[in-house]
Structure formats: structure tokens, C-alpha cells
Amino acid sequence: MFKKVLIANRGEIALRIIRTCKEMGIKTVAVYSTADRDSLHVRFADEAVCIGPPKSKDSYLNMKNIMAVAELTNADAIHPGYGFLAENAEFSDLCAQYKIKFIGPKGDMIRAMGDKITAKETMLKAGVPCIPGSEGLVESIEDAKKDAVRIGYPVILKATAGGGGKGMRIVWDEKGLENAYNMARTEAGASFGNDGVYMEKFIVEPHHIEIQVAGDQYGEACHLSERDCSVQRRHQKLVEEAPSPFVDEALRKKMGAAAVKAVKAINYESVGTVEFLVDRDKNFYFMEMNTRIQVEHTVTEEVMDFDLIKEQITIAAGTPISGMLYFPEKMHAIECRVNAEDPLNNFAPSPGKITALHTPKGYGVRVDTHIYAGYTIPPYYDSMLAKVICRAKTREECIVKMKRAMDEFIIEGVKTTIPFHIVLMDNEEFRSGKFDTGLLERFDYVSAIKEAGLG
Ligand code: MV4
Fold first, then answer.
1. Which run of H or E residues covers position 423?
2. Probe target for ligand 1 pocket from 166, 287, 294, with the most ligand atoms within 8 Å of CB
3. What is the mean pLDDT of the chain?
4. Whole-number Cα distances in Å, 289 to 113, 243, 409
5. Structure confidence by residue, pLDDT tens digits, 157-215
6. Phi, psi (deg, nearest 5) at residue 199
7. Ligand 1 binding pocket includes 11 (Cβ within 6 Å)
8. Potential cystine with 123: which of 71, 128, 297, 429 (Cβ 3.0-4.6 Å)?
9. Which residues are catalytic?
10. Distance between CA atoms of 381 and 265, rounded to whole angstroms?
């Protein structure tokens, strides 16, 4: 087992990893930018080294400085967390070159899953259902017409260099195709410097459902059921839950088996997530594979009673995954992301100093956070302040608990998404469990916040 792990990250995930390392008896090295000098991950780590000025490119993305710290402090492994270098294939390769274990997959695996077309081809070969679409890029309007007839309207055109919802254009029927195709290529060229577009069947009212997976160095793989991440605003997840209110036992078995097949087919090592789009008839289609621990790994931990960061570290240290899993009695978990953003002002970022803080506690409430009263939120990084995770026997009880927890959560000095979460827990469509990724386009949360006197 590793003696010392460098955590190449900041904020709540750096703390999350430090905590598990401490419980495993592993020494920890924190790296930080000058803007994070007073951050908790610096204080909680056994050692801490400044790696540069605030800008990410000069600090948390500065591979040279991070590697230098690993060498200087004699770290035998690096945990990248999520974001920053977590899915940087070059960094994974660099760790291998310096004989420092990257706690994640090898560079080539990250590269393969990071390329949308390669990932889809790999999954098709593995027998994982993929969204029907064009064979690679659509090179001409003639090809576009033929593909659209074969696939069947509605179709969606996606920029191959796009992602996260950017560079997508829906085409409902033949007469809209030519213009949409030309616009999609022009916009892709302008936005991404690459005008390549591909076509897929448009999945109407999709659910974003992802399967937590783990694979070890011996070709063994398993899954830890699903998470429903359909509550998103402009492709930013705000609320995640496990299990999904949309998935029944039969669908869970099918999606879990497909995800495990995928992991085994690519000989995947580490924890990861297979993302699917699920349509209203419960057909599921591979969307992408994330080769990192995710923000929302917590809801899986809560319903599985399982430390996923510990599993990621033990897999990296060569421990097999077999026999690690059992399925405790069914629990439900919901995570709400508390960001320094103003829901009454288009979720505009709201950095600044936290003048007062009270975090919710009590039975079934977990708060993963790095903030404290007096902490100044730097404007350089993402706006997430805390994750509130509630667990209960049923989804209904979980929603009641989350509402109670959010009512208790006091953060003064900056605007936060707390009022949004409070009114969401009262939203009928959300409470019914019958919602898809379009929920927040239908929910007038601004009026709801004002009517609740939270604005
Ligand atoms: C789709 C889709 C419907 N049909 N592809 C959005 C970002 C990227 N992950 C893929 N996305 C979508 N791709 C087909 N063929 C609908 C979306 C989509 C979406 C997907 C997951 C979660 C939220 C979403 C919000 C809007 C659109």
C-alpha cells in the first residue's frame, strides 16, 4: 500500500481524499496556489507545498511543478480528484514515466474514452447500446439527407469538437435539414476550429442516468448501480440521486450488465462512470465514459455504504475488487450542490468572504465542504462551496430531510443556490420522480424563490 499520496486538487474533493488517506494510514501532501494559502486542504494535509499563482494553468494544471513536489516529498502516488488533471492523459503518462502511481487509468485509456467517436466505436464492439447515428462525420448535405432518412427524424447534429451541450442542433424534419447542417458546420468551425459534425437519433425527453463502475488490474470489473443526474441547468448538474426514480429492477440489471461489459471490454482499471441517455420507453444508449471519480460519487457511497475513494486507492495499489461488494437494504440518497451563484440572477457567480456559516447536521445528513466562517471564496476556480447529501429509507423521506437540511444551512456574505434547492424540494414534478433533463426549463424557480420570501 502507498505510504504517501499527493492530492493534485483543491476544495472539497481534496479534503475528501485526505480524510480517506488518513483513515488508511497514508501520509498526505497537499499542493496549493497562492490564492488557497488559507484553505482547509492545506491545513489538514501532513505536508503542503505552494505550486504557483492563482491561475489554474500556473498551479493546479502545472504538471511540472506538481511532479516536482511529488519527487521532493517522496510521494509514491498522486490522486487527481475530478476536474484539473483528472482526465489528462499526458499527466497519467508523466506519472508512469516518473514511477509515481497515478490513481486512475493509464493515459491511453483516458485518451480512448475522451475521444467521442473512438469511445462509441469501442462500446459498439463491446455490445453496449449506442445512439443510432452516422458512421463518423457527415461530410456533405447529400450524406446528411441519406443518414437522416436511415436514422429517422428527429435527428441531432453534434460538433465532434464540441461537448457539454455546446454545438448541438436538433432537426425535426427534412425541410429543416439543409439549413441546420450548414449552420452546424459553420458554428462548429467558428467555435471549436473544427467544423466536423456527426448525426444521431434525437432522444426526446432524455434522462441522464449513469452507472458507477470499478475495474482492477486483473481484468475483473463490477458496478455499483446507477445515479440519476437529470436535474441540470445548461448542462451543469445541480442535484443527483441514487437510485433513479425512473429505473426499475429490470432496467437496472440491463444497464449494470452493459456497463460491466464495457469496463471488461476495455480492460478498464480504477473507478469510473458509464453515462447513458435513457428515453421515455426505457431504452438506454451509451453517451460517454468518465475516467475519474465524480462530484456525485457521494450518493452511491451513501446507498452502498461504501468508500469509493478508498476503493480507488486500493485498486491503484494492486488490490483486486472481487468480493468487495454487497447490496445492503435499499436506501435512497440525494445530493444538492451548494454553489456561490445567484439563482435570481441567472446563477451568476458570487465570490467573496463568508461572514457567517452554519452547516446542517443530524441523522442522515452529510456535508462535504471546505468552507468556514471567514473564508474568502476565490474567483479563480469553480463555484462549488459544499455538497449536502441526505440519506433515508425512501425518496420521500429523503426529500423531507433535504428540505430540513437546506432550511438549516446558513451561509452569509455571498449569494448561494440554497434557496433554489429549498424550492426544488417542494416542486411537484421533482417530488413525483417523473422528470427528465428538461425539468429546469419547465420550473419557474425564480418566482418560487420570491414567493417563498427567499429572494
Ligand atoms: C443528446 C440528447 C438527445 N439525443 N443526444 C447534452 C450534453 C451531452 N452530454 C449530450 N447531451 C445530449 N445529447 C441525443 N442523440 C440530449 C442531450 C441533452 C442532455 C443530456 C444529458 C443531460 C442533460 C441534457 C440536457 C440537454 C440535452
1. helix 418-424
2. 287
3. 96
4. 6, 19, 34
5. 999 888 888 899 999 999 999 999 999 999 999 999 999 999 999 999 999 999 999 99
6. -125, 140
7. no
8. 128
9. 292
10. 36
b/e code 37-51 from CB counts within 10 Å (16+ = b):
eebbbbebbebbbbb
Residues 6+ apart with CB under 8 A from 179: none
Ligand 1 center to residue 156 CA distance, Å?
10
Q: Which of 277, 289, 440 for mutating ligand 1's site (highest number of atoms within 8 Å of CB)?
A: 277
Under the banding of pLDDT at 50, 70 and 90, the label for residue 328 is low
Choose the residue to mutate in 131, 171, 240, 437 for probing ligand 1, maximizing ligand atoms within 8 Å of C-beta. 437
> What distance in angstroms lies between residue 287's CA and the mean position of ligand 1's atoms?
8
Residue nearest to atom 7 of ligand 1 (CA): 165
pTM: 0.96
Task: Tell whether ligand 1 has an atom less than 6 A from the beta carbon of residue 146.
Answer: no
| CATH number of the domain located at residue range(s) 4-103 in this protein | 3.40.50.20
CATH superfamily of 132-201: ATP-grasp fold, A domain (3.30.1490.20)
Ligand 1 contacts CB of residue 206 (under 6 A): yes
253 CA to centre of own chain: 22
Which among 153, 198, 197 has a CA at the least distance from the CA of 175? 153
